[in-house]
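User: tokens in, sequence out, please.
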């Protein structure tokens, strides 16, 4: 159990490193979407291991709604860049 969580945390560090290294806004947004998805999967794994379904509901909400806000922000940034000469 602990080994799986440590592996998940190490996999979470990869997009964090990419977000810090790259200056392109789209690459940063992609990295943050990946972080949100991996974090929600970790929450779901912990909730199953602890047999606590209230934590699982939070993980599902983050998984389903969390990336929607990020995609709305991406569309706003795209529209703003189209309006600029």
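Assistant: Sequence out:
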């Amino acid at each position: 159990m602990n080994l799986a969580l440590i592996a998940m945390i190490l996999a979470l560090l990869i997009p964090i490193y990419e977000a810090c290294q790259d200056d392109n806004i789209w690459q940063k947004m992609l990295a943050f979407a990946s972080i949100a998805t991996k974090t929600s999967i970790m929450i779901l794994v912990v909730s199953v291991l602890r047999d606590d379904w209230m934590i699982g509901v939070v993980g599902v909400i983050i998984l389903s709604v969390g990336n929607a806000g990020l995609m709305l922000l991406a569309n706003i940034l795209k529209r703003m860049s189209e309006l600029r000469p």
